[in-house]
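Model the whole thing, not chain by chain.
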Amino acid sequence: MDDFDAAELFEMRELREDGATVIALTGELDYGTVAQVQQRLGELRDARAPVVLDLDELTFMDSTGIRLVLTACEDAREAGWSFRVTRGSERVQRVLEAAQVIDRLPYHDAAGG
Amino acid sequence: MSRLTPVQRRTLPRDASAVALARRAVDAGADALSDEQREVARLLVSELVTNAVRHGAGEQVELVLDVGERRARFEVHDAGAQRPLRRAPAGAQGGYGLNLVASLASRWGADPHAGVWFELDRVASAVGVDVGAPAADAGRPSLDGALAGQLLHTVLEELAEAVTVTEQGGRTIYANEAAVRLLRLSSAEELIESSPADMMDRFDVYDEDGVPVSIERLPGPRVRAGERDVEPMLVRNVVKATGEERWLLNKTTAIRDEHGNVVRVVNVIEDVTEAKRAELGQRLLAAASEALAASFDYEATLQRIAEVAVPTFADWCGVDLPGPGGYAQLVAIAHSDPAKVALARRMRARYPVPLDRTEGIATVMQGAQSFVRFAIDDEDLRAYAQDEEHFRMLRELGMASVIVVPLAAGGETLGTLILARSTSGRPFDAADVELAGELGRRAGTAVLHARAYTERAAIAATLQRGLRPPELLAPPGFEIGTHYTAAGALNEVGGDFYDAFATADGWMLVIGDVAGHGAEAAALTALARWTLRSTSQLTRDPARAAHQLNATLRELPQLSLCTTVCAHVRTGGANGAASVTLANCGHPRPLLVRAGEVRELGGVGPMAGAFDDGSWDCTEVALHVGDALVLYTDGVLDTVGEHDRFGFTRLCATLETAASEEPDALVTRLAAELEAFRRGPQRDDTAIAAVRLVGGGA
């Protein structure tokens, strides 16, 4: 059971929606799976392409995910880039709440978002 | 009974894959945990392993799982030093991992042997009950089931406030760590096995007014008895065993069943001792400052110092100063039982405290920062007392706990402040010593100010006595009366003056008024008086005296003006008559009162000090036996009444009415008339001098 494939745990898909790039994450987001998301977000940021990060299908997220989201938020503020997130799965929300960041994120469904 | 899992160790490669592998290990090894608790465990293990992979050292990461019945323990080891806090990234987005560990674990830590570790207390095994999951906020995911219980339990155990849960019958079914500490118990079980009355019996409980509180008055029992909206109650709680005092805020919430009946009561007891002490201390110090600022009177200040601490801070308070004969002198005392003030004075008179004693007041008088005896029993008192009577008096006064601090100002010990509590239930403690010290410093400063002020006031009074016109002695053959008031309530001196002194062939009566009021004017009047006196004695000539006064005032750097009348009186005329030689420098003319009639005498020359050159003509007047000569200053005429000034007409009328009276009575009557006439404050200095020739003199 040590020989699991990271792809079984985590998947990143990309789709277009209302002029934004939606990056939909499925499975477990942690230190082992975050790199590809980081890289893709960097590219889209540099291209100033509006992004919605979809956290609704994540079955696990820890502070690595929080760091990813908060860093993107900071980049967005500094670079005038449009970056938003979805509310996330219940597990994601519980982590965001425990880390006391749940009220600080730019949500895709929020007014003006 | 849950299955006990042996300690499990999993070795993982120290790379990015380790985090997910560690979660799998938790899933496999901690299956005894509830789903929600396992979710917390997976999250926190992920955090620690991520930390080890990102910031640790070596090829491997070791995960240790130890799932016990009461708690589950997880350790993560790597080859690096175990300093998770230092390893936490310093950037703006760092620190969340360890914050999650800190907020969700029951306990966590790091050390070289145990690695970085955390524990989760297993709810089912803790002493306690399901006190109900928090209601979900709309739009927020609810923390349900065991995860909520886990979080709640963690929160409760970490809470600084004591929390207990009691059943309707009064039995305690839960107490958190803080409650165990606050109630001075060894374990929650001890509380759970005690009845409320047993528990209450360990403490003396008072309300804010110092009234003992019975158990029925506490919020918990009131809520159990069915009361609604019970306000939080602040009580002073004294641990009987130790005498320790705490201020506790008791808040109570009822848990009701679906019918609205109270089934359980949650008590939250907050130890607000520090805040309450600080508040009481601030209130005391504010009251002290206010009281001490209220007076510059030295003795009144000392008494206020004693009073300010009683009864809120101490049951009695005494102020001692170094007294004569090497003894402390009790200069002020306040006692919550006023009847005992006399006792204290009697005791100190009978058993004075030598300043070379090696305890108590004496040591502080010698420079110690404080002398403290938190708990004094009869044996201590007996050891201190000089005899049985002394012991009896000390005991009656009440000396269960004592603090002595210096009345300190500018590094100097002026005296001592002794604060005492009479009963053993409320001993002082270290915080009280600090407060007493501050009280002593404030009082010391006030004493220093009051003493300086009293000294200055004494100097001023001495000076004023010197500057103030003297009581005049009547020359032989004359009666005399004088009146003098200075404008301004605190002033004894002003710009008006009079004087009478002997010359070689008679005597001289002078009255005058220098421009201005107060101390400066008084200094100038002294100059004028002594100039007139010395010149008159040398020359016996009022005109020469006026001339010299003018010259002296002209020599002063600032314009100094003075009006004056000098009257040189010589007796020895026919039928006992006397002659008066008058010189007038711009002053109201003297009055002659003869046979009930008043007339003005002489001419008026220039005011002294106004011009470099001036000449003053003298007027000669004969004085018959029975005649009175009245000299006055313009303060008499200018006294302001309801509609107008007192004026010359009223002056004459008053003098005519009182013409037959002795000069003393005459002047007193005039002064009384002026006082009756006056409306508002006195604006000008007022001087009156009257002499009557009665004859029979040399």
